[in-house]
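Mods, move this if it's the wrong board.
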Amino acid sequence: MDEIKILIADDQTLMRDGLKTILELEDNFKVVGTAKDGEEVLDFCKKDSPNLVLMDIRMPKMDGVKCTKILKSLYPEIVVLILTTFNDVDYIVEALNYGAAGYILKDIEGDELVKAINDACKGSLMLPSSVAKKLVEKLSEKAIIKPKEKNILLDFSEREIEIAKMLSMGFNNRQIASSLFISEGTVKNYISNIYSKLGTSDRTAAAIEIRKIIEA
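Not the wrong board. Structure tokens:
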């Protein structure tokens, strides 16, 4: 297996050192550096290009979300895997929208972390079921459709509303499928129905219309 060069970004020294120790046990992993904030990540990548960045969300100076946005715009080939906790759900959608390959919990077991990195580098989207479930619940809390409101979402099924909310927040089909534990084909079918009910075939236009309805 090809060597995977990894940069670890976390503001906690103990976390950085612990991850480094675990990852360096793998023959195909090479930890090429560590960083304590987003600015250090960007400075490092100017000199050396890792294959993957393990990116903490909450860091001083520049957090993981902003760093992911800048990093993916400059170096789209670098895989970003977000390190998160249950309390970071609000930031996860933003990071995914900016091109993160997924997220893993900080208390992940060592062998699962190794698998997640290998899978992410192969192009798989990493969405732990425990966090994905909470993420979907959070989305539902943020956009409750009131019965008295006269809007087109009242004609949507419960699943269509769920998918419409995620579409409006920038999730792609693969991310929606992984979060809701359904196939991408099923997601495409639901989105086709959503387009039909909204009278559009454009994803951006649909997302804008859904946001207008939800925020009304």
